[in-house]
Design brief:
Layout (H helix, E strand, L loop, with lengths): L7 E4 L5 H10 L7 H9 L1 E9 L2 E10 L4 E9 L8 H16 L5 E3 L7 H5 L21
Length: 142
């Protein structure tokens, strides 16, 4: 597919729940329930959604407390549109907002899948190991 990236709009808003779940699935990110996605999207501090012919084809969000700790999450681009610099466009929008709106001492973090770590390094992100190590767990009901 050949798409001129000038026909792709950067919209300052999160995707809908359905678009969010679709982009996470297509981006090979972990799945969430619709209920979790609906709650989570409400906690967005800032988000961009890339749209081509009104279809959501990319997204990225910033979540957190807005002062001390914030995290970049949900960077995803529809596989049909990869390799066109759209992940970089999403990150540039998120970082511009962060630099203009967050306090100077805010701790901005993200989890990087490889090879996306190369993209994030372009925006000043560095590995924290061995001083600190990212850890996670999924909430489950037993």
């Amino acid at each position: 597919m050949t798409t001129d990236t000038t026909s792709i709009d950067t919209v300052i808003q999160p995707p809908s729940v359905a678009e969010y779940l679709k982009l996470r699935r297509e981006g090979e990110l972990r799945a969430f329930s619709p209920e979790a996605a609906e709650i989570g999207l409400k906690g967005t501090l800032f988000a961009v959604t890339l749209r081509h012919e009104n279809e959501a084809i990319g997204m990225g969000r910033i979540v957190g407390d807005g002062g001390c700790f914030v995290q970049i999450v949900d960077i995803a681009v529809d596989p049909r549109f990869r390799g066109k610099g759209l992940g970089k466009r999403i990150m540039a929008s998120l970082m511009e907002w962060a630099k203009n709106e967050l306090p100077e001492t805010t701790f901005l973090s993200l989890f990087a899948d490889i090879p996306a770590d190369k993209l994030y390094a372009q925006f000043g992100f560095t590995e924290t190991a061995p001083k600190s190590l990212g850890m996670s767990c999924r909430v489950t009901r037993t």
